[in-house]
Amino acid sequence: MSATCDRICDCASILCGGQLSERNKHPVIQFRVLKNSSDGVDHPVHRVGISASTAAVLFFPPALTQTILGFLATETVLAMIPGACYGGDALVCGRLLTASVRW
């Protein structure tokens, strides 16, 4: 396990070093946007928040439904359809309500 962690750390350091090099005029990953301190804190926090909310909405309800209630995959999907329809309706209604509002 420690050899795997060492390889991951080595690859990450090589990637970051290559991307931050002054010779690299067009980096694939724009690490320079994180040099502002507020942005440097904001981006990882934002990513963690999006990941947590995505997991809470998309992963946990089906997993709990299948584990606790013993539903099959098809039954779980059928149980999730009303919530998906409600979410879609809320998006459409929100768009319609704000269509005439100018910001």
Unreliable sequence segments: none
Query: How does the overall form come out from the CA principal axes?
Result: flat
Q: In DSSP terms, counting alpha (H) and pi (I) runs of 4 or more, how many helices?
A: 3
Write down the secondary-structure element order. Answer: HHH
How can the largest sheet be summarized?
none
* Gyration radius over CA: 22 Å
Going by helix content, strand content and strand pairing, the class is: mainly alpha
Strand content: under 5%
| Overall average residue pLDDT | 75
- How far is it from the N-terminal to the C-terminal residue, by CA? 54 Å
- Could you tell me the number of beta strands? 0
User: How much helix is in the residues?
Assistant: over 70%
How would you concisely characterize the structure shown here?
By secondary structure, this protein is mostly helical. It is built from 3 helices and no strands.
